[in-house]
């Protein structure tokens, strides 16, 4: 079963399913030679699979001087081999002006990516892309329990349908929570911003614990230093 059948889009939403030529990404993205080579060597094809708009998925439009939510693009990027999806995501997101969800496909595994876009105050036809979120790789043949929960959450019928901004922000948050499922499951928060702040604090603390642990395990570190390092690690864990 492919991903869009799995999450119910194939059955309920009319597909767009048009190839986005790599030359279009080259030209409109103003890509460097290295970025063009990355697309050529690592990507089989990029397809605009679904366009949620007034004709296919009617919702209210949210447009202001700073943002434009009148549709949602769902893009499928089929990879030839393992690659930095962070770099590819930036290339695709910065080329497409609409709020976009990218699904990277490698074999039977999928990774979801999203980003927040705001209108460029100096150049109205351009957008500024920021706050990228990425899920973990999800094997459709063997998803974890938290990944099953995520796939259910982003399925047709579960996405809030008041307006395009609400729908996109919901998907954006679900992707973040899937990527950080283990930490998120242990955090109490009244809203997403609080949840994200606490999650990032936990991640930073764990990175510091890992750094100190590596130092602790070095043979060149004296016994006195090891005692101090062990003490700092225990303090962080409290």
Features:
single chain; 238 residues; alpha+beta; seven-stranded mixed beta sheet; 10 helices; 22% strand; globular
Model description:
- There is one protein chain.
- This protein is of the alpha+beta class and 238 residues long.
- It folds into 2 domains: 3-179, no CATH class; 192-237, no CATH class.
- The protein contains 10 helices and 9 strands.
- The protein has helices spanning 3-6, 9-12, 22-29, 33-42, 85-95, 145-153, 164-179, 181-184, 192-216, 223-237; strands spanning 18-19, 43-52, 62-63, 68-69, 72-79, 100-106, 109-119, 127-134, 138-139.
- Strands 1, 2, 5, 6, 7, 8 and 9 form a 7-stranded mixed beta sheet that branches.
- A hairpin with a 2-residue loop joins β6 (100-106) and β7 (109-119).
- α6 runs antiparallel to α7 and α9 (192-216) runs antiparallel to α10 (223-237).
- The chain is globular, with a radius of gyration of 21 Å.
């Amino acid at each position: 079963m492919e991903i869009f059948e799995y999450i119910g889009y194939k059955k309920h939403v009319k597909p767009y399913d048009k190839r986005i030529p790599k030359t279009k990404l080259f030209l409109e993205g103003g890509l460097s030679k290295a970025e063009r080579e990355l697309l050529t060597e690592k990507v089989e094809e990029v397809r605009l699979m679904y366009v949620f708009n007034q004709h296919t998925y009617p919702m209210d439009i949210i447009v202001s001087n700073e943002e434009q939510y009148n549709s949602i693009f769902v893009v499928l990027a089929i990879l030839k081999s393992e690659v930095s999806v962070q770099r590819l995501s930036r290339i695709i997101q910065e080329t497409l002006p609409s709020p976009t969800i990218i699904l990277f496909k490698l074999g039977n595994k999928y990774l979801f990516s999203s980003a927040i876009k705001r209108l460029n105050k100096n150049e109205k036809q351009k957008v500024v892309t920021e706050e990228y979120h990425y899920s973990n790789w999800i094997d459709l043949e063997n998803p974890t329990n938290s990944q099953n929960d995520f796939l259910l959450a982003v399925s047709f019928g579960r996405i809030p349908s008041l307006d395009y901004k609400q729908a996109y922000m919901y998907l954006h948050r679900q992707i973040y929570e899937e990527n950080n499922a283990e930490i998120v499951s242990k955090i109490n928060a009244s809203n997403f911003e609080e949840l994200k702040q606490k999650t990032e604090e936990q991640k930073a603390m764990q990175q510091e614990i890992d750094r100190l642990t590596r130092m602790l395990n070095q043979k060149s570190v004296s016994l006195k230093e090891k005692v101090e390092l062990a003490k700092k690690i225990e303090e962080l864990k409290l």
